[in-house]
Design goal:
The protein is an alpha/beta fold. Helix content is about 35%, strand content about 20%. The chain is built from nine helices and 14 strands. Strand 6 and strand 7 form a beta hairpin.
Length: about 280
């Protein structure tokens, strides 16, 4: 059993049935890094409305994020959030926790069983990194500030030119496939604290990630696809958004992501989320 270490935080009320699931990316979607008074007021309004929807529409709230639990807890405290979700899929879905009403984090045993049966080797990641550097002159910079996790290794790739980056990223994808490694590549978002002109390169097990978490949770709660909703802000959210029935990028999303997804909210952050939910649940106000 794990705790988020936020004594005043409580999870959204648990209902006996689940009719809808709402999936949120965390950084720059649910949690606004600027944390201005206005953004935090909007976030509080969103939390209150979600609590109402949970009861009125039998909804489960799921955060699907690349952040780990300590980062999530720090950001929740910084934003003075009132609620934690029903489920947290951290480290790009390589960790999955159910959240009790008291705030305990309980590993999802079905997902843990799946993880134990996947192949992932940190040695293979390091060998791939060395091959990229010495054979192809492609430099990956380890994101040591966050520490590497058992099933997720994080790097930055710094863009020298668009032509070279397109070539390099194809090679990285190809070598990951040859080494039976899953991966996530997305343009960094400086608003979330990432460096400029860089890409996030995350190595994870094959058939793991945000898309797979969404598919798993839909089966887990036995929810109709038509009752699935998701929000994101960057390229690593696109597969998740395309897996649900109602997938939206927020207005504050990266330009890279907006080029590949046509459902974009008119408003940013919490206001964009509220805009969509008010349309989907017009009688729940």
């Amino acid at each position: 059993m794990v705790y988020l270490n936020l004594k005043l935080t409580k999870s959204f009320i648990h209902t006996s049935t689940t009719k809808y699931i709402i999936f949120f990316d965390f950084d720059e979607t649910y949690f606004p890094h600027d944390c201005t008074d206005e953004l935090l007021r909007n976030l509080n309004e969103l939390e209150d409305y979600l609590q109402f929807l949970v009861l009125d529409q039998s909804i489960k709230i799921v955060w699907v994020t690349g952040s780990d639990l300590s980062q999530i807890a720090h950001k929740m405290k910084r934003a003075n959030m009132s609620y934690s979700p029903h489920v947290i899929a951290s480290n790009l879905g390589t960790e999955l926790y159910n959240v009790s009403e008291k705030g305990e984090l309980l590993l999802n045993e079905d997902w843990e069983h799946r993880l134990k049966n996947v192949y992932f080797s940190s040695r293979a990641v390091k060998e791939l990194e060395n091959e990229l550097s010495h054979v192809y002159n492609i430099k990956l910079v380890e994101q040591t500030q966050f520490g590497q996790k058992g099933y997720k290794w994080n790097y930055y790739y710094f863009e020298e030119s668009k032509t070279k980056s397109q070539y390099d990223l194809k090679i990285i994808r190809h070598l990951a496939k040859l080494n039976e490694l899953g991966m996530n590549i997305s343009k960094c978002n400086p608003k979330a604290g990432d460096p400029e002109n860089a890409y996030d390169i995350d190595f994870i097990p094959l058939n793991m990630g945000k898309k797979e978490i969404v598919e798993f949770m839909i089966r887990y709660y036995q929810v109709s696809l038509s009752n699935t909703i998701a929000f994101g802000d960057s390229g690593n959210d696109l597969e998740m958004l395309k897996t649900v029935q109602h997938g939206y990028l927020l207005e504050n999303a990266t330009e890279e992501a907006k080029r590949f997804h046509d459902q974009i909210t008119d408003s940013h952050y919490s206001l964009g989320i509220l805009e969509v939910l008010n349309k989907l649940f017009p009688h729940s106000k």
